[in-house]
Amino acid sequence: DSGVTQTPKHLITATGQRVTLRCSPRSGDLSVYWYQQSLDQGLQFLIHYYNGEERAKGNILERFSAQQFPDLHSELNLSSLELGDSALYFCASSVGKSTGELFFGEGSRLTVL
Amino acid sequence: GQNIDQPTEMTATEGAIVQINCTYQTSGFNGLFWYQQHAGEAPTFLSYNVLDGLEEKGRFSSFLSRSKGYSYLLLKELQMKDSASYLCAVRETDSWGKLQFGAGTQVVVTP
Q: Whole-angstrom Cα distance, residue A43 to residue B62?
């Protein structure tokens, strides 16, 4: 158990819909990262938050947005869903501003039908 | 940006040694990580190299050569539970904390 909690574990929805994935980092970790893992793309960095502020962005689609709240939990919002958005979405946390060891949650598996 | 290459799959026998190579190209290197990921599970940290040389951690060792853009992960005394995907990941100096992952090497351990 990494100490990072993600909900929901599984989510099935239809194209065009919007979903929110939630992540609670390890106690004391200020950085939260979101990654997408699909079969053909591997693990792709989406976005990094540190203590409530956005610090780095990867190839995150405009239909996707995220935020980190004062209690340090984070949410990833995915809207206008397409079939290609079906993937495992991982949240990871670490202590500092720059990446040390990342601790990954169990992931949220999104299926878009 | 980065380009990270690692073999797609490797097969080895229980008790043997397997070496997983990773080559990378980056504009500003600031560390290389190895993660293990079992199917459907979260990646877990194995090792970190930022200076040239070998880092040993039990049955696992990782080597880095920055001048060659090359790293390897050595798995010794293979066990069945070592069957997993092994991900090489690079951090850049100006990346503000993101890791760029390779596609992963699927290691299959046979009896």
A: 21
